[in-house]
Each structure stands twice: as C-alpha cells, then as structure tokens.
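Q: A small favour: would you put together sequence and structure tokens for a protein?
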Amino acid sequence: MAAACPEFGFEITAQLAPHVDARTRHALAATFHTLAESNGLIADGGGERDWRYVITRDGGQAIDADRQLLGDWIRSRPEITRVEIGPIVDLKEVDV
C-alpha cells in the first residue's frame, strides 16, 4: 500500500491596521487573491482585520518562491501591521 502524496503548502497570518475601512479591506483581499491565482496558487481562508490563509498550489506543491512572492507583497502593504508566514509543510500531516 502506497503512502498518500504530500500536499505542501504554508500558512499566512496578517493583521490589518485599525484605521483600514471595509472598502480597503475588501480591495486588499481581492488583490491578494488575484496575485495568488495568477501565480497558480490557492489562498484558502480570509478574515476581516485578522487574516489567516492556507496557501497551496493548484495541481502541484507550494515552494519557497511562492512564500517569497506573497510575503513580499503582503509586507509591502502599509495597511498591514503584522505578518507571519509559516514554513512549507505537508498539510496532510499538520492541523492548519
């Protein structure tokens, strides 16, 4: 019996500044999703002021370059005050 294939991905958590209004929050989330999708990634999750996303690759495995891409974008946003980007892990073996 063969072991199940791993599903490598990572988690991103972020906190938006208190002054960010609903319109801006929605626009940021839409831009984040567009960036992920245009690079073959799936961003599953969300939130209002506290974001939590699990990132996977459509039909493949997320890699460090994916972490770098999304991390660079999210850290460049002045509306976001705190960012944590987890390591690449087998999502089938951890509770995310």
Q: What stands out?
A: The first strand starts at residue 8 and ends at 16. Residues 17-90 form one domain.
